[in-house]
Amino acid sequence: MVASEGHAAQMNATPIARIIGHAEVATKPREFSVASAWAIQKVLKKAGVTLDEVEVIEVNEAFADKYLELATGTGSPAAKTGEAAPSGH
């Protein structure tokens, strides 16, 4: 469940994570594979944190090979980057 801090308290729920930001990045069609890496860099800058300060980064990427590029492009170890990839890609 995603909820505000106040609503979680009302429901006696203990938060297990905090969303610190989000970002979108548009690229040229031929550069689509780097968009997620650029978005991570953008949101870290907006939030004023470094990758070392973040425990998990959730990435919704349809193409598994792009996920591998993402981990390489951000310097993020694969264990730090969560991924939701539809099967069949």
Structure characterization notes:
The chain is of the alpha+beta class. The protein has a single domain, classed as Peroxisomal Thiolase, Chain A, domain 1, CATH 3.40.47. The protein has 3 helices and 2 strands, in the order H-H-E-H-E. It has a two-stranded parallel sheet. The longest helix has 13 residues.
Short description:
This protein has helices at residues 5-10, 35-47, 64-74, and strands at 57-60, 81-84.
CATH level-3 fold name:
Peroxisomal Thiolase, Chain A, domain 1
CATH homologous superfamily assignment: Thiolase/Chalcone synthase
Strand fraction: 5-15%
Spatial extent as radius of gyration: 15 Å
Profile the largest sheet.
2 strands, parallel
Mean pLDDT: 76
CATH architecture: 3-Layer(aba) Sandwich
CATH class: Alpha Beta
User: What general form does the structure show?
Assistant: elongated
Count of helix runs: 3
Question: If strands are numbered along the chain, what order do they take across the biggest sheet?
Answer: 1-2
Q: What fraction, in percent, of the residue positions are helical?
A: 25-40%
Amino-to-carboxy terminus distance: 28 Å
Overall number of structural domains: 1
Number of strands: 2
Structural class: alpha+beta
Order of helices and strands: HHEHE
- Contiguous uncertain segments of 5+ residues: 85-89
